[in-house]
Amino acid sequence: MKRYSRITGTGSFLPPRRVTNAEMAADLVARGHETSDQWIVERTGIRARHFADVGVNASDLAERAARQAMEAAGAKPQDIDLIIVATSTPDMVFPSTACILQNKLGIAGCPAFDVQAVCSGFVYALTVADSLIKTGTASKALVIGSEIFSRILDFNDRTTSVLFGDGAGAVVLEASDTPGILATDLHADGKHVGILCVPGSVSGGKVLGEPLLRMDGQAVFKLAIGVLEDAARATLAKAEKTEADIDWLIPHQANIRIMQGTAKKLKLSMDKLIVTVDQHGNTSAASIPLALDTAVRSGKIKKGDTLMLEGVGGGFTWGAVLLDF
Ligand code: ACO
Fold it and tell me: What secondary structure letter does DSSP report for 146?
């Protein structure tokens, strides 16, 4: 019998501190930079984001989201035989946030590793987990996106600091006789490293370069819309489906204009678009599973719906996963 993978539970966690555009604007103005709630809402669709307190790490957010996903799936930590965490803001240089999380969950032995593909991280991680389940290496995986982007923001840069937030989203992905995941499509093009990066590193006990997010927003914007359309079409073709089969589009939650532009190119009505960017900001690898869990818990997404998940981010990386929920 053919082996597939299927999402059996979702979870998410937002740190309690909610920061509105008004607060972000007041802080930027106090630092001598002009901005306003109106500018942020009009250009990005973002109204608020959550920031983690000092001392809270990506593994802490991941643990809360993972426990919720396991509860929804009726799974216990001991049932999990693979942990993948997508993050660009790990707790430490090493070991991986996945290993730190594994210890917090009290399970030892199963493989655990991080995936670093910035905002495409969750789509990359889900694809890797799907492959490991299909080959029989794993049967019940925890796939998580967890980020604390507030640690790498330059709060003197109005062009980036207002865009990002912290949070985590998780799914339990299980072996199944029926799909589940219908098709996946991943890409990267390293020549675009410079348009979105955190150009810092550690060496000899010092931080070299600037460990703060730098972005050419317009270049990212243009690339994002094109590759998101291509990835969606390639994934549909692999699954022998069409746009009409998509019940919900869950793109990376970076900017409402990019998301609406993608839906339009795919000729999808705006009510098929899951939007959480207004309340979460861009939470990088966490944005897709956070949006998925929010829509599942609100009753929008139901069992059997066909979902198109799409990621795009630094690298440049991009990809899509089409699945029956
Ligand atoms: N408040 C007020 N003015 C601002 C702000 C702000 N917060 N930020 C920028 N501006 C100014 C600019 O300085 C510029 O002023 P100028 O004309 O005097 O030079 C003006 O507003 C217009 O700037 P643009 O960059 O043209 O504005 P745009 O409409 O392109 O919006 C934005 C900028 C929101 C960054 C947009 O380009 C965007 O969303 N890009 C994609 C970002 C993205 O998706 N990033 C995440 C990728 S995922 C990952 O891997 C992390």
Answer: E
187 carries an active-site annotation: no
Residues above pLDDT 90, as percent of the chain: 100
Contact status, residue 213 vs residue 158, Cβ threshold 8 Å: no
Test site for ligand 1: of 43, 88, 158, most ligand atoms within 8 A of the Cβ:
43
**Is the pLDDT score of 131 beyond 90?**
yes
Q: What's the 218 CA to ligand 1 centre distance in angstroms?
A: 7
Residue ending a domain, among 159, 176, 193, is: 176
Domain span holding position 128 = 4-176
Q: Residues 181, 75: contact at Cβ < 8 Å?
A: no
- CATH number, domain of 304, equals 3.40.47.10
| Of the residues 125, 155, 176, the one at which a domain ends | 176
If asked whether residues 128 and 49 sit together in one domain, one would say yes
CA–CA separation, 196 vs 181, rounded Å? 30
- Looking at ligand 1, which residue's alpha carbon is closest to its atom 10? 159
Cβ–Cβ under 8 Å, residues 200 and 208: yes
Q: Is the CB of 44 under 6 A from ligand 1?
A: yes
The Cα 198–Cα 104 span in angstroms is 28
pTM check: above 0.85: yes
Number of domains in the chain: 2
Query: Known catalytic residue: 110?
Result: no
Q: What is the pLDDT of residue 141?
A: 98
Which residue out of 21, 119, 197, 255 is catalytically annotated? Answer: 119
What pLDDT was estimated at residue 1? 81
Based on the fold, state whether residues 203 and 110 are members of the same structural domain.
no
